[in-house]
Queue: 2 jobs
Job 1
Amino acid sequence: GEDVEQSLFLSVREGDSSVINCTYTDSSSTYLYWYKQEPGAGLQLLTYIFSNMDMKQDQRLTVLLNKKDKHLSLRIADTQTGDSAIYFCAETFSGGYNKLIFGAGTRLAVHP
Amino acid sequence: EADIYQTPRYLVIGTGKKITLECSQTMGHDKMYWYQQDPGMELHLIHYSYGVNSTEKGDLSSESTVSRIRTEHFPLTLESARPSHTSQYLCASQQGGVSGGSGTQYFGPGTRLLVL
């Protein structure tokens, strides 16, 4: 069945790089997404990557995809306190109505 | 920038009351979704719609119901609220299928529901 797994917590020092990891199971996923959720808010799309790509960079964000291992990562360069949030990885499920399968979220804490 | 709205943002209500959570989007998206999320936890899909007059139940069983009479509007109703319904409810919309990033779901700010 479909499943997305993430580590639950990450703590980094301000200015360092953060790497949030995700594994997924549906090898036929077409797109993989990273969403950010700040306290009390909805999910904000950060970036997405098409499954035939290995890497995508967007300003401070770098997404790496290892399709063989079904491993996705999000690297945030020069992490700031405003990056503190929960980050959700999601994959598209190829069956049915193209729903998204979300991981449980990684809580990123940035400390001075 | 996505234009998807949810009201109310916060709701405290007594057991047994009927409530409707509103969700509207101005992007003309065909697909809309309702998720339930407990604090700090993962999202669970409870309802979705492909378009007008289309509604389906999601992965997590829910006592709520939805309707889709207009493209832009996807309200969720609880006929008789219970404390077990206390949660955050997130609405999302999506344009068409998965191509060129159009499979992206855009989320509203959520409604935090507390049933006493």
Job 2
Amino acid sequence: EVQLVESGGDLIQPGGSLRLSCAVSGLTATTNYMSWVRQAPGKGLEWVSVRYNGGKTYYADSVKGRFTISTDSSTNTLLLQMSSLRVEDTAVYYCVRGGGNYYAGYFDYWGQGILVTVSS
Amino acid sequence: IVLTQSPGTLSLSPGERATLSCRASQSVSSSYLAWYQKKPGQAPRLLIYGASNRATGIPDRFSGGGSGTDFTLTISRLEPEDSAVYYCHQYGSSAPWTFGQGTKVEI
């Protein structure tokens, strides 16, 4: 059974940094396409970032240069390092299997989500 | 690619049919279009991928169709538990991959 469990969400001041973790079980994070998707309060879904199984990464324009996606193969964990956080980064962040523009680029496994609140 | 979903809200009764629309600003390559169901406090659930393929465990009441720029999600016999927001998502272009703004189905 595939399970994705996010952690690391917090209340953080604008300009601060935060690292989200996603503990992956039932599949290997480094050999899958893994993404982060977020949903701001009262808003729709927004794709944030993807890491391909070969290590290539892509980011939404709204987070490019501020967020970094990576994996830790020793713990089978997906990570999202967020810096220079803005109020508009406030959202529930989902760890997701999938992403990419190919036949299996849809998001089939989702974590339960973790809340990040950016506020002074 | 911008995805526009309509209607914004759909209010129907149990047993009725719901038809949700997703229109893309340009053609979605290879019909790489998915649909998700999102309920409050829950993670989104994949319903349809490749425009018309049901995901594992999804009842056959849910069906997807379309190609190019126009796609639909049909729920043939609505049940109370189908109340949710439904999102389309295209993955046929280069990044960024986009979602529609959602259609709320009220039963």
